């Protein structure tokens, strides 16, 4: 099996996500709800983002790796074609759920039996990874055959709807049903393209480069040239938040040396998320003007939003930890901890606040179990001992969490991963990025996310692991000192809840099963320790520190 480092993981994730969208769409059609609608429409941005990341990796590999032979080139091109069509399929599912609002009675569509349609789609989506990796011609043909099958389904429903429209009743609902089944038929067209990409992966496919219309509009509103010919746009990183991010700057010939250092960051995605991030940046800006980027422009278009923000010079903290010398790491941590201390102290509100770490696990379970279905434990008996199921354990720990509360709140980052902190050595300061989840909450949320984001870096040689463990240990000491200074007597108990949450939910982003299982086991260990401690005094709970280190 031919593999490509980095690409294969993203490819697997996008297939999983589109399969999940198919299942969610069927559930929505069976029983529509606002929660299911929001879930489907919001996950579409994550799929769009994954597709862009994969495309960029494909182009980069094709143009930078001179050792690739023709077969390898065609395999990479096939991934690109497949992912473009997967993203189209995800869009069709969003369109289908949006169409449901036009039905006079939302159960109306159930008269036309769509179960067969979802069986065809899900079976083909489930065959993609095997067909591609094993170069299985029969499975590729199986995927292609979805197109005539879905055409036939559409034709039968079309004829029935046309006949019923002649009776002069339910015209709006009948037209809506027709549109819904038309989208199903278009899913068949995309599956045909996917099957053909696999079949012809040895021959190659043309790569189509998409245009960024939202970027053009945002640049125009922000005072940049209307023409793309005057702009360099290059993707610089991908996020899991459903947003597309890139660096934008004018052509080098038009810039001074100082301007070349600056540039801007373009970010585009779900309107509500972009709005929330803008609000968070504005609040951070009022409190700590130098901590976050300036916003140069903001644009709304239907359910999409885009921003142009200041490009922050420096490197992310994970780069410092992995490649900087010891003195640089110590200095970066000193600056970070002083910044965190200032933000927490200044925004502290000395009123108790409830936490929801167990709810956070439960809300992300579907993503975890899609990547690692093994991480859902059934109840077991061993001799006279009973082992709780995952469901029972989470429920018991949620009840235990109700007994706790943080003694005060602070304005937290909300997604305090190590790669969401930019360190500028020349300016001797850090900056926060990716602030969509900022809110007033328990500081332990940021603490646990930061430490686990260090832990989960997939670096296993002893030299770098020692560095990572040293950073975790140093930050844990900082947390304990802060808690002691502010009379937080339940810090270790709440940290156990928060770490269990961060370890468990992080497994959905790790395809290395051994490493993911390591994080899962630590989460289960902490949850079981919490469960066994119920009835005790939370102020006396002791966190087993070894759980922090790999």
From TrEMBL:
Domain PhoU: 33-99, 116-197
SUPFAM superfamilies: PhoU-like (SSF109755), Protein kinase-like (PK-like) (SSF56112)
Pfam families attached to this UniProt entry: EcKL, PhoU
InterPro entries in alphabetical order: EcKL, Kinase-like_dom_sf, PhoU, PhoU-like_sf, PhoU_dom
PANTHER family: PHOSPHATE-SPECIFIC TRANSPORT SYSTEM ACCESSORY PROTEIN PHOU (PTHR42930)
Protein family: Belongs to the PhoU family.
Protein name, as recorded: PhoU domain-containing protein
């Amino acid at each position: 099996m031919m593999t490509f480092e980095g690409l294969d993981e993203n490819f697997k994730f996008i297939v999983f996500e589109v399969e999940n969208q198919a299942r969610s769409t069927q559930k929505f059609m069976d029983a529509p709800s606002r929660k299911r609608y929001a879930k489907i429409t919001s996950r579409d941005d994550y799929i769009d983002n994954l597709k862009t990341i994969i495309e960029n990796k494909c182009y980069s590999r094709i143009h930078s790796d001179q050792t690739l032979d023709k077969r390898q080139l065609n395999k990479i091109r096939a991934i690109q074609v497949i992912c473009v069509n997967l993203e189209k399929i995800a869009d069709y599912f969003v369109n289908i759920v949006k169409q449901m609002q036009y039905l006079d009675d939302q159960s109306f569509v159930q008269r036309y039996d769509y179960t067969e349609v979802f069986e065809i789609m899900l079976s083909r989506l489930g065959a993609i990874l095997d067909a591609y990796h094993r170069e299985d011609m029969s499975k590729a043909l199986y995927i292609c055959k979805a197109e005539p099958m879905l055409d036939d389904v559409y034709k039968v429903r079309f004829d029935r709807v046309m006949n019923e429209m002649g009776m002069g009743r339910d015209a709006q609902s009948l037209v809506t049903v027709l549109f819904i089944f038309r989208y199903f038929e278009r899913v068949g067209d995309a599956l045909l393209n996917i099957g053909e990409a696999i079949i012809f992966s040895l021959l190659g496919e043309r790569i189509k480069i998409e245009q960024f219309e939202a970027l053009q509009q945002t640049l125009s509103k922000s005072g940049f040239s209307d023409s793309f010919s005057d702009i360099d746009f290059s993707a610089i990183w991908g996020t899991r938040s459903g947003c597309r991010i890139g660096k934008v700057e004018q052509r080098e010939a038009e810039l001074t040396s100082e301007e070349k250092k600056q540039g801007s960051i373009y970010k585009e995605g779900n309107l509500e998320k972009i709005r929330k991030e803008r609000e968070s940046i504005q609040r951070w800006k009022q409190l700590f003007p130098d901590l976050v980027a300036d916003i140069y422009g903001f644009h709304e278009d239907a359910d999409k939003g885009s921003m142009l923000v200041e490009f922050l010079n420096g490197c992310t903290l994970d780069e410092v930890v992995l490649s900087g010398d010891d003195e640089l790491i110590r200095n970066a941590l000193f600056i970070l901890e002083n910044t965190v201390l200032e933000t927490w102290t200044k925004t502290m509100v000395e009123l108790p606040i409830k936490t929801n770490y167990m709810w956070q696990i439960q809300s992300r379970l579907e993503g975890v179990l899609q990547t690692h279905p093994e991480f859902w434990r059934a109840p077991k008996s061993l001799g006279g001992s009973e082992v709780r199921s995952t469901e029972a354990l989470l429920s018991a720990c949620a009840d235990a969490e109700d007994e706790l509360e943080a003694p005060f709140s602070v304005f937290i980052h909300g997604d305090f991963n190590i790669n969401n902190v930019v360190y500028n050595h020349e300016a001797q300061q850090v900056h926060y990025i990716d602030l969509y989840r900022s809110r007033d909450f328990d500081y332990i949320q940021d603490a646990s996310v930061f430490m686990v984001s260090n832990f989960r870096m997939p670096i296993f040689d002893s030299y770098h692991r020692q560095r990572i463990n040293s950073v975790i240990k140093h930050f844990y000491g900082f947390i304990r000192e802060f808690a002691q200074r502010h009379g937080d007597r339940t810090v270790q108990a709440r940290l156990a809840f928060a770490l269990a949450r961060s370890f468990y939910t992080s497994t959905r982003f790790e395809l290395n099963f051994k490493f993911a299982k390591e994080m899962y086991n630590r989460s289960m260990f902490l949850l079981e320790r919490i469960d066994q401690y119920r009835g005790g005094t939370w102020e006396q709970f002791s966190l087993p520190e070894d759980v922090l280190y790999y």
